[in-house]
Amino acid sequence: MSQPLKYSFQNDLAKVSGREVLEKNVFIGANCTIAALPGKTLTIGEGSVLGIASLVTSDIPPHTFYSGEKAKPIAKVTIPFTVDTSYEQFVRGLRPLPGKKR
Questions:
Q1: Among residues 46, 2, 44, which one has the least CA distance to residue 21?
Q2: Which CATH number fits domain 18-96: 2.160.10.10, 3.90.1150.10, 1.10.1740.10, 2.30.30.40?
Q3: Cβ neighbours of residue 21 under 8 Å, at least 6 residues apart?
Q4: pLDDT for residue 22
Q5: Residue 44: which residues within 8 A CB-CB, separation 6 or more?
Q6: CA angle, 60 as apex, 77 and 57 as ends, to 5°?
Q7: Which of 21, 25, 32, 92 could form a disulfide with 43 if both were Cys (CB 3.0 to 4.6 A apart)?
Q8: pLDDT higher than threshold 80 for residue 101
Q9: pLDDT tens digits for 25-77?
């Protein structure tokens, strides 16, 4: 009688992917891709917002709005975008980043 095949998909998955950590009050827009390198941890900081279809491959600092095909910082978030926050409140709470021109 042959031995049952022992295979762990989870062990193989750990070799080809990293770990993503989403802190509190993070908003992720539709069709975003968050990809950590194998063996690495990628953190999306508390209160951060990712715009629609953003590609994230590195850490996002807390309270920052990132957007774009290769996500870049757009603004500082002063009002987290949660279920209790209207879109208008969120937008009014965005602040320009130092050194960023419109």
A1: 44
A2: 2.160.10.10
A3: 41, 42, 43, 44
A4: 95
A5: 20, 21, 22, 23, 26, 28, 34, 50, 56, 59, 60
A6: 140
A7: 21
A8: no
A9: 999 999 999 999 888 999 999 999 999 999 999 999 999 999 999 999 999 99
